[in-house]
Amino acid sequence: MTMIDSDEKPNELVEYARDRLREAILTNQLKALDSFSQVQLARELGISRTPLREAVRLLEYEGLTTVQFNRRVTVAGLTAEDLDSLYAQRIMLEALALHTRITAMDEEFLSNSRTTLLEMRIAEDAHDVETWSRLHRIFHLGLVLGTSRRIDLQITHLFDHAERYRRFYLGDSNEHWNKGAEDHLALQQACEAGDRAAAVRRLMEHYASTALGVLHQIDPHYVPALINGSCMMVRGLIFLD
Where is the HTH gntR-type domain (predicted)? Predict the structure, then answer.
């Protein structure tokens, strides 16, 4: 890991440590269940333990790390239970938000969203995962943020928590990358048509497909009761629309 200038301000040190550790976890430089002492991590990052502790706390909130009683930092594992809970919440919250937001999407917004999709495809073709991830975040959150501050914060937190599962699902699979691109385009087209039911259904199916794809790899015998239940509730929302 890169050392940092000691003249940086405390908040900048926290942000630096969080970003470096987050990147190392998401890119699998730090693997699931790897464990480190905070002294070791602080030394490698070239910072004191105070900003490191705050950075680790933020990562723990994202679901990327856990802190043991002896203050060792452990990279959180990918578990079926976490995946089931995470995607069930995402499906319900984002379906509700999209259902509410779609009527407020004007041509300028939809044009910007189309441009983001095009840029995502360019980044994908260039195998630029970091740029694709940034644009993917802009695309999805743009569709669902704006209902209320509380819901926006929860949606954003869950979206960021899901990043490792997304990257695990996509991996080097052209099939998964192409499926994702098709899902995004179908979602965009439903929004452009103002078809609230179709847009919500596309979003639900997109998230459920990703979650089940990951689940098949990490625990194929696990029954995702929460995801199944969330999909039933969203179908009810669509039926009543």
Answer: 11-78
